[in-house]
Structure to design on (383 residues):
């Protein structure tokens, strides 16, 4: 059965016919049951992403009520991802500059080593699921400067912390998220003070030079690098496995074409995005696509639908890792565009390459999966 709304679509087996119907409908459509305006065409997403009145958080609730004033909320409140204007720009510039300076070979070497050290046995779906989550976050933790002995506990704390970002979390999960926020905050703050070249220390130094002199915000954003890696990059690895399991010729290309794994991962990000949607909120009354939106109106931007808009990518429903200059919405666009795009793609590519080289690739035709419950993340759970 087709999904009935764009939030159900996120975890549907094949949401793309539904997204095509959304794109063919009115550019900005109100979904009365979700109480959301929905945008799915590429050009409209560009308009909303660059509209000065469209903000990442509702003015009345800068931090979700469930965590406001508590440790996880204190981190959330300071993330560049969750702020606009003055609270966003200097911090974003620093984060962007530092992540852009991480050499590709360091990313690939860290990921290859960590991925090979945790390899699941071929056919062990539970171990594959754990591997898919553990490798990206441990790789970023290692690049931040953590030693190997700390990586397992940083990954576990990140897993506990990200529960605060989901409205599906229980009270027990939120309590663990607060404890994890404090543990991660302490760990990254100590790391940032150490001499020695890791990304955490580089970010602290760049912040000082870049007029972003706010220790608590720097700490929060270091935690943010781990949390923003955690689910989305696992989803990119998982969705790439799904795409390759359906397309043996693409697996051959991944193995043998120049930059084969990287191209495959980038095309997966477009074709089956791990982040299917994001939101914006009107800070004041605005007119968009001929529709008058009142102040506070929430707009759901369906990134995964825009990726498949023929105005953005020719033959959008074809999975083609050799596609020239793909146009991606998966990593957002405009002021909040993801500064971790290149890092995430290189980590996912190196992880998949290590899985293949380590003879841990799932047996052909043996992969079965469903999707983890979520309103925006598309992450396969292998069975
Ligand atoms: C496949 C993996 C990833 C995907 C699909 C992804 C996607 C996104 C998206 C969609 C946004 C913006 C949301 C919006 O505009 O509403 C974003 C922002 C962000 N991402 Fe990623 N991301 C990924 C991995 C990473 C990694 C590995 C890092 C860093 C280590 C990272 C760091 C960030 C940061 C700091 C922001 C906030 C930027 C800002 O608000 O200006 N992401 N990401």
């Amino acid at each position: 059965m087709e999904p009935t709304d764009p939030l159900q679509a996120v975890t549907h087996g094949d949401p793309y016919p539904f997204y095509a119907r959304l794109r063919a409908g009115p550019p900005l459509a109100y979904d009365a049951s979700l109480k959301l305006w929905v945008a799915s065409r590429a050009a409209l997403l560009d308009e909303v992403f660059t509209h000065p009145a469209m903000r990442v958080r509702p003015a009345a609730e800068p931090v979700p009520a469930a965590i406001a004033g508590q440790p996880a909320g204190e981190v959330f409140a300071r993330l560049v991802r969750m702020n606009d204007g003055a609270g966003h720009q200097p911090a974003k510039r620093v984060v962007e500059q530092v992540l852009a300076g991480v050499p590709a070979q360091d990313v690939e070497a860290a990921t290859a080593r960590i991925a090979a050290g945790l390899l699941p046995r071929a056919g062990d779906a539970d171990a594959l699921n754990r591997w898919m989550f553990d490798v990206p976050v441990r790789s970023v933790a290692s690049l931040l400067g953590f030693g190997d002995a700390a990586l397992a506990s940083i990954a576990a704390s990140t897993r506990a912390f990200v529960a605060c970002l989901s409205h599906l979390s229980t009270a027990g999960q939120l309590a663990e998220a607060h404890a994890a926020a404090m543990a991660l905050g302490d760990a990254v703050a100590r790391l940032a003070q150490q001499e020695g070249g890791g990304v955490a220390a580089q970010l602290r130094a760049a912040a000082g030079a870049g007029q972003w002199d706010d220790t608590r915000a720097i700490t929060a954003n270091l935690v943010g690098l781990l949390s923003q890696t955690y689910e989305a990059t696992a989803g990119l690895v998982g969705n790439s496995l799904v795409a390759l399991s359906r397309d043996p010729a693409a697996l051959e290309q991944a193995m043998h074409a120049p930059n084969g794994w990287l191209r495959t991962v980038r095309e997966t990000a477009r074709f089956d995005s791990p982040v299917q949607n994001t939101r914006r909120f009107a800070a004041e009354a605005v007119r968009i696509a001929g529709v008058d939106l009142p102040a506070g109106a929430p707009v759901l931007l369906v990134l995964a639908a825009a990726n498949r808009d023929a105005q953005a990518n020719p033959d959008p429903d074809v999975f083609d890792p050799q596609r020239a200059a793909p146009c991606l919405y998966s990593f957002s666009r405009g002021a909040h565009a993801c500064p971790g795009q290149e890092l995430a793609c290189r980590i996912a590519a190196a992880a998949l390459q290590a899985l293949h080289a380590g003879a841990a690739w799932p047996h052909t035709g043996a992969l079965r999966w469903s999707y983890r419950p979520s309103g925006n993340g598309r992450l396969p759970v292998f069975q």
